[in-house]
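Hi support team,

I submitted a single chain yesterday and got back a structure, but I'm not sure I'm reading the token output correctly. Could someone confirm the output below corresponds to the sequence I sent? I've pasted both exactly as they appear in my results page.

Thanks,
R.
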Amino acid sequence: MNFKLVGPLLLLAALVIGDQIRINRPNHKYRLTVEVETPEGVKSASGVMAVHPDRSYSRGGKTSTKGDAVFVDLGGGKNLVALLAHTGKSLELDEINYVALRAYKAAGQNVTFNQMSRATGTVPVTGEVIPVLVSFADPADPATARVVSPDNIEGVLGKGIRLRGVSAEVVPNGVWPLDFGGALGDPVSRGIEAKLPWLNGAGDAAGRALQAAGLPSAEAIDSKDAFTRK
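Hi R., thanks for writing in. Yes, this is the structure output for that exact sequence:
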């Protein structure tokens, strides 16, 4: 073995690993929490999202988010799901990338996108920044999806059920790919496919769910991206 090559090879390996960390490390992570008042008390659920800018050398991509829709089990067979989508003239999938940024700005923290990992505290997500909310009369059947207005959850889910609030909180990035929790990085939340088993099935069940909910046409997108992003 030529030991003169060991140093340069180790240096090269370190540079390659460091570059992969730079490319794949999220710009920031945030926890999206949904709280709902019910006659039985407050029900809540949250999910950690990772927001990734395009750092590849080709610069052919765009900012993207990894994570799952947030499923709140309200009990009694009722549920509320915050999708990874917003509505406009069509279903918008890119707006989820900027939920935390816009929420922090609205709360008075004048941070830029690149400074988001240093944002502090939990801030409310309100108005048009709230993702699309839907409910499934039967979570096993995508055709039972109904869109839910944040201002009138009772109209779909019944008397005494109200949106208490949606919030965002920046959480530690960690050092990709070592997501061990806490200061070492909160891992991206998964689990929506267990709540909505048809997401793993054949065909465009996600598209049928969006259509059943009466959401704007989104033929140019992958409908499953409204529920989960890998």
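A quick pointer for reading it: The mean pLDDT is 88. Let us know if anything else looks off.

Best,
Support desk
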